[in-house]
Design brief:
alpha/beta
């Protein structure tokens, strides 16, 4: 059986890094991207442990030339999964009237538009039965917004979900997924979150793999449960 391939965008730490390790444990070949040319120590250790299965590349979603260079470099490769984990947590406390144009645009570019731009550019590398996904959050759900707050984060992730739905209509035979990892104890999630990284990533990887050969877009949590839009 040939080795399966996954490209994970945004793997310097947290969930992205843990996804890299989990797929490596399963014998996959992983293309892991970072911003900047300094490889984090945790990724270096994985490179030493899995020298033939881990490929580290540099890409910043905000730099179109880097996205184009990576796409050109990967020409000819075939992916079983393409997954964008990269994103930011904007100011958590800003009042609606205090949000600047700059902060709004920054959140929308990082969390919504640029991830979908990359998916669109790299879609042709994914095998017909492959999976295309992006990390989102349950907080993107309009139906489940019963508390408000986190205006920039919520709105940018809701925009991501809408753009991903548009993307899925352009590629209707594709298996597409918006993945909610749960509230996880990472730098972004904070120390009081419900789950450890492992408690999220291990079932999330199983959920991703299970989507092979399916079609259409799903909004799922890490266990594979459907979430309301």
């Amino acid at each position: 059986m040939s080795t399966k391939n996954i490209l994970i965008v945004g793997t310097s730490r947290g969930l992205g890094l843990a996804m890299v390790e989990e797929f490596l444990k399963k014998g996959w070949h992983v293309i892991a991207t970072i911003r900047g040319n300094i490889i984090p120590l945790s990724l270096k250790k994985l490179t030493e442990k899995y020298p033939s299965n881990l490929q580290i590349e540099e890409v910043d979603l905000n730099k179109a030339n880097q996205v184009a260079d990576l796409r050109k470099k990967l020409e000819g490769q075939k992916l079983d999964i393409l997954f964008v984990n990269a994103g930011i947590m904007p100011d958590r406390t800003a009042r609606l009237s205090e949000i600047s144009d700059e902060d709004f645009n920054h959140a929308m570019l990082n969390n919504a538009l640029n991830p979908i731009r990359l998916l669109d550019k790299f879609e042709s590398l994914v095998l017909p039965k492959g999976i295309i996904g992006v990390m989102t959050t349950r907080m993107a759900s309009i139906e489940e917004n019963t508390s408000g707050g986190l205006h920039l984060y919520r709105s940018s992730k809701t925009a991501l979900n809408q753009l991903m739905r548009n993307f899925s209509h352009e590629y209707p035979k594709r298996a597409c997924v918006l993945m909610h990892p749960g509230w996880v104890r990472t730098d972004m999630g904070g120390p009081y979150a419900n789950f450890s990284i492992e408690e999220s990533v291990i079932p999330m990887v199983k959920t991703l793999i299970s989507l092979e050969g399916k079609t259409g877009l799903q909004f799922l949590n890490y266990k594979g449960d459907k979430l309301p839009w």
